[in-house]
Amino acid sequence: MTIEGGQGAAAGRRLRLGMVGGGEGAFIGAVHRIAARLDDRYELVAGALSSEPERAKASAAALHIAPGRAYGSFTEMAEREAARPDGIDVVAVVTPNHMHAAPVRAFAERGIHVICDKPLTHRLEDALELAEVVRRSGIVFGLTHNYTGHPMVRQAREMVAAGAIGPVRVVQVEYPQDWLTTRLEESGQKQASWRTDPARSGAAGCVGDIGTHAFNLAEFVTGLRCERLAAELSTFVQGRALDDNAHMLLRFAGGARGMLWSSQVAPGNENALRLRVYGETGGLEWAQEQPNHLLHSPFGEPPRLIRRAGAGASPAAAHASRIPGGHPEGYLEAFAQLYRELADQIAARLDRRQPDPASLLVPGLEEGLRGMRFITAAVESSRRDAAWTALEG
Amino acid sequence: MTIEGGQGAAAGRRLRLGMVGGGEGAFIGAVHRIAARLDDRYELVAGALSSEPERAKASAAALHIAPGRAYGSFTEMAEREAARPDGIDVVAVVTPNHMHAAPVRAFAERGIHVICDKPLTHRLEDALELAEVVRRSGIVFGLTHNYTGHPMVRQAREMVAAGAIGPVRVVQVEYPQDWLTTRLEESGQKQASWRTDPARSGAAGCVGDIGTHAFNLAEFVTGLRCERLAAELSTFVQGRALDDNAHMLLRFAGGARGMLWSSQVAPGNENALRLRVYGETGGLEWAQEQPNHLLHSPFGEPPRLIRRAGAGASPAAAHASRIPGGHPEGYLEAFAQLYRELADQIAARLDRRQPDPASLLVPGLEEGLRGMRFITAAVESSRRDAAWTALEG
Amino acid sequence: MTIEGGQGAAAGRRLRLGMVGGGEGAFIGAVHRIAARLDDRYELVAGALSSEPERAKASAAALHIAPGRAYGSFTEMAEREAARPDGIDVVAVVTPNHMHAAPVRAFAERGIHVICDKPLTHRLEDALELAEVVRRSGIVFGLTHNYTGHPMVRQAREMVAAGAIGPVRVVQVEYPQDWLTTRLEESGQKQASWRTDPARSGAAGCVGDIGTHAFNLAEFVTGLRCERLAAELSTFVQGRALDDNAHMLLRFAGGARGMLWSSQVAPGNENALRLRVYGETGGLEWAQEQPNHLLHSPFGEPPRLIRRAGAGASPAAAHASRIPGGHPEGYLEAFAQLYRELADQIAARLDRRQPDPASLLVPGLEEGLRGMRFITAAVESSRRDAAWTALEG
Amino acid sequence: MTIEGGQGAAAGRRLRLGMVGGGEGAFIGAVHRIAARLDDRYELVAGALSSEPERAKASAAALHIAPGRAYGSFTEMAEREAARPDGIDVVAVVTPNHMHAAPVRAFAERGIHVICDKPLTHRLEDALELAEVVRRSGIVFGLTHNYTGHPMVRQAREMVAAGAIGPVRVVQVEYPQDWLTTRLEESGQKQASWRTDPARSGAAGCVGDIGTHAFNLAEFVTGLRCERLAAELSTFVQGRALDDNAHMLLRFAGGARGMLWSSQVAPGNENALRLRVYGETGGLEWAQEQPNHLLHSPFGEPPRLIRRAGAGASPAAAHASRIPGGHPEGYLEAFAQLYRELADQIAARLDRRQPDPASLLVPGLEEGLRGMRFITAAVESSRRDAAWTALEG
Q1: Is D266's CB within 8 Å of C170's CB?
Q2: Where in the sequence is the signal peptide annotated (chains A, B, C, D) (predicted)?
Q3: Contact D360, D201 (CB under 8 A)
Q4: Which end of chain B, C or N, has fewer beta carbons within 10 A?
Q5: What is the distance between the alpha carbons of residues B256 and A282, in angstroms, rounded to a whole number?
Q6: What is the pLDDT of residues C281-321, one digit of tens each?
Q7: Of B300, B303, B311, Cβ closest to residue C301
Q8: pTM for the predicted model, two decimal places
């Protein structure tokens, strides 16, 4: 093995974790579990993994959850775990969008911390109401906009904030995929089915599923608020109920201008989230499929390839990094980063101390609401023929 | 030397070429001259190279133009060359935008063929009038949208037309540069000065200079007409008179949707024209800075890297190619391609025969007018807060 | 979240794991632990983590190992764990090279399965002796040539075996790094110290550390045996005791020819392991720093970019994959793959059933011996001025 | 058009050029002619283009050579051109390798300057003799190792010489192609036929054809002399008379070590010449297929992408550059660079002045002899089972 240094997984208190959703075949649940395990800060001890009792039970057994803590519903789970002395510290909610609100509320109201898959809910009004509940509860609440966990995304944010590229002028963000190029939902493919179904996904398809990631990434890195957008949502696949492509113009506070493109019908693109930010004195480029790299182009100098844990990598990047440069980290490690930082936050809460400030970047309620406003504004703008529409709040 | 085959420069009649503009220090003139020389189809024999007589004379001498054919004005040149039995067959007009119309008219009216730098003129009304004159004259008229001369652009067009990616849904075109990131025009840099001056460039800066190339490329490759656009033009550099960044939504006939971004304030980008086209069954990607490659992604298959003159290269690519695969061709070769094809057209005219159909793709009046309508619509839309604006005609 | 399908971590029996070495600050131990955790097939329950008692104890505590199972020496650990009814099923040996043999022997002789970091030992004669012991013991023995765990490496191997590129002619493998460009070992940096120390690393530096990975990868993917090599080992950094750069010619059984370059003094290279294999009908390229891609170039056709879990990905790649295409997996996931497959093998042994054949590709004794022969032959050849030297056995 | 500055083609005296070889279908002749034309420093006025009289005549006509100067043999051409007051200033010799020596001698002895395609001859003894003749003649002699004409190759050389990467330690050069993967010579393909024929190519196939380019590039950029090599030449295609793959270890004066790989049987590689040089304080990488880029990796800093005519481009790069950054130049422009510099040298000679020192880098006799010694040593070493063999002289 060839590793010249670097930090191992942070040691620290191991939290008791429960999960709602994520039974067998529900992919995102598996991702959350790997993310939770990776840095050894969680132990999965309880679950309401499926609304089908048999599946729930089988899934729990496969995951080494004790039979007594394999619940038939999140309500039951919330009640009984809250009552146990060794009840869960935190719950991960990994159900489809329309089923986020109820479990989040149930656990939050019992003081159990929550990690919720994005987007926050499937409707803005639900989100606003839920946010109120969560705020009042005082819990730690994390929303897994996982791309913010990448070391080089952290570094990009830090560099922009430090003025490395000067005041931002132009923001180009895009997130093309191709998996919905044909009418996959007709085949019964589970992911395709619910993501193209307004009842389960909300008013937006591609915009809600991946456009929100792109939007979140742009705001996260630039530190700017998008104030208005002009959106054209399209549905290219005949018979599909929601948009599968979105084109938008963006206006940011302070005068920066941008574009956002998200698509699920762009053949050749697997998961090609990419952000480019241009300021008065330089540019930055980051692409999800090559996440260990960040291209920094100071105006008037040759572009520099900054690599995770390599020369020029910043403290923020190091904080989010596990292994030496040249040993690629990927999607799961970035996801795990959010879990690790939430563990820091929750452990600090349990231990009645201040958390490490470096762990406070995990997206939460605020980002969840921004995402819902973005979706809502995009749908509204598109209905009004791409008229400029404000993101209130 | 290692060349395994390929075609040499096509032999053929050598034309007598004159040039208007392009004196010492005027860069684009030098490019046109190299392009004209590369395939040995032109001999530069006359010029009105500068409005300053001394510079005109010195430039002509440096270019081996006989003193008697170094003219003080394009008017004089048009008259005298038209009168010579060995007068020029064709003239290249390489002046700044606002000085295209007058010389084009002067030569066209005398039946001398014209190669004109883009855009056609600096105002749409002039362009329409000029187009009438040129049409009536019956001359061969070429407009140097040089990026259409690239072999892999030709192949992309051919593939789209042949249905290789199915009906087009999404068109993403962008053309970022960074050379106007600061207020370069204040330094007296000649290119920056006239390109940011409304009197010489017209109503658009970045949009007219490079946005038109992007627009032309998108229409050329897809074969689709853009019907409406919603544009936000920005001027980020304080004190600049014209736009230096443009964001647009595009609607094409037949339902395709697209985006266009052009910028001259995007640090790190030299000349990063790039086109991506997505259809129902596949995608295509081409980037000007790596012009020998075309990425073809048939949906459900691994992306394929098609290389100029390599496996999978089409007849259209071969037609526009000079040397074997792996030996990169570039900007000048693509520019020369237009010159070569115009030579074919003009020689055919002189010889009273039909030209090779493969040589008829050179942009001309029609593309020139499309470009002017694009510029006009973009400026108009931006004035109306990015309202959808039709590209009439 | 945007994941369109794919397989989650395989469920299965969770094994009790012990670790020798890998205390605080010893990086590779942390990598092994993450790898063990990632697919939830191991629980770390015992350790002899350091030869310094205090460090051993602190490390164990940080890793949630019960105090009674934090041992002061591997001998004690082997004895006591073998005696417990709930003793460890398997031990990971992650000490420096010269300390592999003794613990491996201790556990093997007690029937405890072993996962050993590479190379097998620091001297060939030890390796041969150890191999005998291990063979007689009948245990499952895995050697973490981790790069063989990458999905696209698996696919490359499968493709070569299936004749996708025809009989192999040329093998180009290289593994440059730059971290030893200066005399880092003088700074006290721990990794640099032992890796440049003959007493702890053996007769080879760069060759043993990373050259073996390159060699292993070449044999793994091609399925060919390297029979002879001609090596020039260099030490460029003054005062260094072992080689920091190696150049080799390789001859494979069946007539294929190759080159191997490994270096730790090549500035700009982080961990740039890269393999290219050319056969009679096609070529394959894989690079560790972009591990989700495999370039396949069938002769006479455009190169194809095969992506992990994308179109064209094979069953072997799917077997080694966790998440959908476009979501990059990296170094840790490949390392975890070996752990997962060893868990399959060990669980099958415990359950007295046949393991999944797909899990039998993990390098073991054979590859460990090949690696030692490679190191030995390289050192010998270099001493004899790059004379051809056989890899016996 | 979008060009922000840059230099046009240098004006200067136009030379009268003759050509030996290069008739219709002989590809390299066409390349030399384009190269000669590109910067307008030559006019092709005479030729002995083919040994077949009809082809010679037709070729001359197609190239606008006056009938009286279309010769049936180079001997006749040398005599008659030397006798004309307006005879050629310089001749380009573009015949197959075994036919370089005789015409070079014929023109040199008459004081006519010579541009010769590489390699110098097909046998070392001929080369040595020829070199004597050329030296005594006092003519300007250029050998078209065209890759040395690339701006970024020039910059790399300049940077190494200036110490930008410190003393060189490691040199990795490779030149893979795939066009001889099958027995193309059997098909009658002209290039394949003579390049695999010992009678016309000399004792080496791939080594002579492209290995020499790689070798020349390595010495040109590093400024180091390769003193010894150990080579394994292989012929993978059955029935082929010469090597089609070569693997070599290299030892340079001063202690640098290197590897050279050239192949014509590596599927997927078109013309993938690539050089990497590593010194004590940095690394440099250049690849022919992306020739406008040079990657500079100062140790301990992020790698920097230096682009032709962009930030960080050096005077040497500017000297060899025609158009602004981001507008790719390629193979023909680099080839033309040698022609331009030879025109500068010859014009200076004719004008009895000193040439621009920047024009003196064109390879000539010395490089030609180095190339022949390289070929000879490689063949000799391979015959002796890859024994170390000196490059004398």
Answers
A1: yes
A2: none
A3: no
A4: C
A5: 34
A6: 999 999 999 999 999 999 999 999 999 999 999 999 999 99
A7: B311
A8: 0.96
B169 reaches A (C-beta below 8 A): yes
ipTM above 0.85?
Answer: yes
Q: Which residues 206-265 of B have a C-beta within 8 angstroms of D?
A: 209-210, 213
Q: In whole angstroms, give the CA distance from residue D355 to residue D342.
A: 10
Local confidence band at B393 (pLDDT 50, 70, 90 cut-offs): low
Segment holding B304, helix H or strand E: strand B304-307
Asked if B303 lies within 8 A of A268 by C-beta distance, the reply is yes
**Who contacts C315 (Cβ-Cβ below 8 Å, separation ≥6)?**
C158, C358
Q: Name the residue among A9, A34, A322 with its Cβ closest to that of C9.
A: A34
Structure token digits, residue D243: 């090597």
Residue among B235, B257, B264, B296 with most chain A CBs within 10 A, to mutate: B257
Q: Quick one: closest CA in D to C299, which residue?
A: D267
- Alpha helices per DSSP H over chain D: 27-38, 53-62, 74-83, 101-108, 124-137, 151-161, 190-195, 198-201, 206, 212-222, 315-319, 331-350, 365-383
- Average pLDDT of the residues in A362-368: 96
**How would you write A250-281 as a 3-class SS string?**
EEECCCCEEEEEEECCCCCCCCCCEEEEEECC
Please name the residues between 276 and 315 in chain A that touch chain D, using a CB distance below 8 Å.
Answer: 296, 300-307, 310-312
Quick check: C192 and A4 CB within 8 A?
yes
**Which residue in the set B300, B301, B305 is minimally distant from C303, CB to CB?**
B305
Question: Taking CB atoms and an 8 Å cut-off, how many pairs form between chains B and D?
Answer: 166
Q: Report residue B308 as tokens.
A: 């100029």
Largest CA-CA distance found in chain A, in angstroms, rounded: 65
Q: How far is CA C151 from the centre of its chain?
A: 15
Task: Classify B368 as helix, strand or coil.
Answer: helix
Measuring CA to CA, how many Å separate B276 from each of A266, A319, B59, B283? 9, 36, 41, 7
| The pLDDT value given to residue D11 | 60
Q: Which residues of D touch C178 (CB under 8 A)?
A: 283, 297, 299
Q: What is the pLDDT of residues D282-301, one digit of tens each?
A: 999 999 999 999 999 999 99
pLDDT tens for each residue of C227-264: 999 999 999 999 999 999 999 999 999 999 999 999 99
**Looking at the predicted structure, is the pLDDT value of residue D5 above 50?**
no
Counting as low any pLDDT under 50, the low residues of chain C are 1-10
Spatial separation of the C-alpha atoms in residues B313 and C152, rounded to whole Å: 28
Chain B residues whose CB is inside 8 A of the A388 CB are 385-386
Residue C370 forms beta bridges with which residues?
A: none
Q: Report the range of poorest mean pLDDT among A137-151, B74-88, B185-199, D259-273.
A: B185-199
- Enumerate helices (H) and strands (E) in chain A, giving the number of each: 13, 14
> Contact A331/C332, CB-based, under 8 Å?
no
> How would you classify the pairing of strands C293-298 and C304-307?
antiparallel
The mean pLDDT value for D328-354 works out to: 97
- CA–CA distance, A358 with D229 (Å, rounded to integer): 55
Cβ neighbours of residue D194 closer than 8 Å, sequence gap 6 or more: D96, D200, D201
**Chains with 3 or more CB pairs under 8 A to chain D:** A, B, C
